[in-house]
Design brief:
Helix content is 37%, strand content 16%. It is α/β, with parallel strands linked by helices. Strands 1-2-3-4-5 form a five-stranded parallel β-sheet. Helix 4 runs parallel beside helix 6.
Length: 147
């Protein structure tokens, strides 16, 4: 973690599945002066981060399996997004963002926003948008806000 912070990273996102000691790893990131965040792969339950929410400023719910861009959105992750948002709300952790990455498009953005996400990552869909990147961003913002 130190090498990333030394290189200028201000936030490190740790996949919950990548370490045996998630609490220790997130604490290390914080001790280095960076913001710690945690990511959940599709098969990992929201409960995997329940006891580390006080150490993060963001929880990333993956709506595709990590590996490559352009994958199809996994709609069954929407209840997990809501579950994470509810865990944060119950603890009064309003400053912690819920991020979603994977398959975010004009068709899916409203659903993830309605489920509780407030940070959205879109890649392939934006670059393929016929109106260009600005039109893609505008469309996503409009639909997320409406949701």
């Amino acid at each position: 973690a130190a090498q990333y912070v030394d290189a200028g990273c201000s936030r490190l996102i740790v996949h919950a599945e990548s370490t045996t000691h998630l609490h220790r790893t997130l604490g290390l990131v914080n001790s280095l002066g960076a913001n710690a965040a945690v990511a959940l792969n599709p098969a990992t339950p929201a409960s995997a981060v329940e006891h580390v929410l006080d150490l993060v400023d963001m929880v990333l719910v993956m709506t595709v399996n990590p590996g490559f861009g352009g994958q199809a959105y996994i709609a069954t992750m929407e209840p997990k997004i809501t579950e994470v948002r509810q865990m944060l709300d119950r603890r009064g952790l309003d400053h912690v963002h819920v991020e979603v990455d994977g398959g975010i498009s004009g068709d899916t953005v409203g659903r993830v926003a309605a489920a509780g996400a407030n940070v959205l990552i879109s890649g392939s869909w934006m670059f393929k948008h016929p109106g260009g990147l600005k039109a893609a961003v505008d469309e996503l913002r409009e639909k997320a806000t409406a949701a």
